[in-house]
Specification:
By secondary structure, the protein is α/β, with parallel strands linked by helices. The protein has a single domain (about 5-279), classed as Arginase, Chain A (3-Layer(aba) Sandwich). It has helices at about 25, 50-70, 85-90, 125, 135, 160-170, 175-180, 185-195, 225-240, 260-279, and strands spanning about 5-10, 35-40, 75-80, 100-105, 150-155, 170-175, 200-205, 245-250. Strands 2-1-3-8-7-4-5-6 form an eight-stranded parallel beta sheet, with helices on both faces. The relative contact order is 0.17. Bound molecules: manganese (II) ion (MN). The site of manganese (II) ion has 6 residues, from loops.
Length: about 280
Amino acid sequence: MKTIRKIGVVLKEGCDIEGGQFAIDALQKHITMDDVVRLDEKLIKDQNPLYLDAVVDLNERLKASVKEAHDQGEFPLVFGGDHALAIGSITGVAQKEHAVLWIDAHGDCNTEESSDSKRIHGMPLAVVQGYGHPSLTYLVDRPIEAKNILLVGIRSLDDAEEALMKQWGVRWLTMEDIRRQGLEWMQREVMVFAKQAKHLHVSFDCDSMDPMHFPGVNTPVRGGFVSHEILPLLENVLSLDTISSMDIVEFNPTRDPNFGTMNLILTITKLLETQVRRN
Ligand SMILES: [Mn+2]
């Protein structure tokens, strides 16, 4: 039985939207964190990408915490905080042939050149492949290969970002594909991908969900998943013994009046605890 190490990351500077900094406080009412990583506000400067030094410093410390957990045979479960933290949560565990399942409304494959907003939370999946600002890619010891990446739930890509994803050979399932081909098709595609992985990291962005029911996110996009579409998929994926780490990101409790997003995070955490205990 594996121990889960729960790591909270207090971070909103990757997206620069108010409210996300309270995510860990809100989650700690229900979840005991083993470690909490905070941004060093002294490092905040106007930079491109936005707040680069502060986000790099945070990811360096997060990477060390995740790596320590992983090296001790534990399962790092990282709560955020915006998606910029995936740079640390993935580089801390990445081994040869490491695969990443990225569940998100967005592609998060921008570089500081392609990005209009210059926000690092739109860049982590580029960075872990080794693309982007050198201060960010400096954290990458073992780039994730495009063939070992699958994005699911996509419905908002920037044009330049989409061109990069095509060029790199990253594969993604859009929400449109999923609606057209059906949930069973999605399940099959994801499980074929996940089952061939030697080591699997799951990055779950709460904005993959439909904001009508799950509004507690920084950058909502209409037309996302509902619970019964995503929970069976996660249950299957999390039951694989190759899954070795996960992050749950972009929770903004100030936009979650009925606790829809909060409750979903608690449900996924319980699901993971049950599945990891079984492995
Ligand atoms: Mn994201």
